[in-house]
Amino acid sequence: xxxxxxxxxxxxxxxxxxxxxxxxxxxxxxxxxxxxxxxxxxxxxxxxxxxxxxxxxxxxxxxxxxxxxxxxxxxxxxxxxxxxxxxxxxxxxxxxxxxxxxxxxxxxxxxxxxxxxxxxxxxxxxxxxxxxxxxxxxxxxxxxxxxxxxxxxxxxx
Length: 157
Prior knowledge:
The protein has 157 residues and is α/β, with parallel strands linked by helices. Helix content is 18%, strand content 11%.
């Protein structure tokens, strides 16, 4: 098989119908749009319209709620932090903060803080100043000789 021999399967594509090219073509005059009225003209947007009946999207009850002051945290596993330490992007002497993780490229944007999760293994002795940490992450950090400080009101979220 050569690149110039590649073809679609038979019947995989259909030729485009050219409408409005004379009555003899079978798709001329009205071009398949029927006669008169709103939908025969361009710029129609009545997808949710049900002929005057209350439309489905208004009959159904509203559900859910978007909390206006929700806290959005970056979630980072301790295994990912260990990789950054081994790569020399995080210094063991300085505390691990949101800004330090952004600078090291572990997280892409700062958001409202960082929550440390316990997947992976941590060998480096690090001190963390973060918004949150799971129980398994705290155990792993303290086992490696490090410490965790939870920051302010964000810590309860």
